[in-house]
Amino acid sequence: MKLFERDDSKSLQTFQEVPSEQPSEDVVGRPIPHLSAAKQATGEAIYCDDIPKYADELYMGIVFSKRAHAKIT
Asked: Which segments show compositional bias classed as Polar residues (predicted)?
């Protein structure tokens, strides 16, 4: 018995054609992965939540006020 069933995922990514006479140094119109793409795809990327906490580490949060120049009590 399967607990979860779903169809296989399918995707398609298309890029515009780059003219063959365009120099390889000219990146206009070429698909270029961003710098962290490989690490994100392989799971090697380090995110804030992956970094161990320090003893007595300070946390903060943003507090929005519904009133301008109001006192926070």
From this structure: 11-22
Q: Residue 44: CB partners within 8 Å, gap ≥ 6? A: 38
The torsion angle over the Cα atoms of residues 29, 34, 35 and 37, rounded to 10 degrees, is -130
Instruction: Output the CA angle 11-13-15, nearest 5 degrees.
Output: 170
C-alpha 45/C-alpha 39 separation (Å) is 5
Tell me the pLDDT tens digit for each residue of 30-71.
888 888 999 999 999 999 888 898 899 888 888 887 888 888
What does DSSP assign to residue 59? -
DSSP secondary structure letters along 6-52: -PPP------PPPPTTS-TT--TT-----TTHHHHHHT----GGGSP
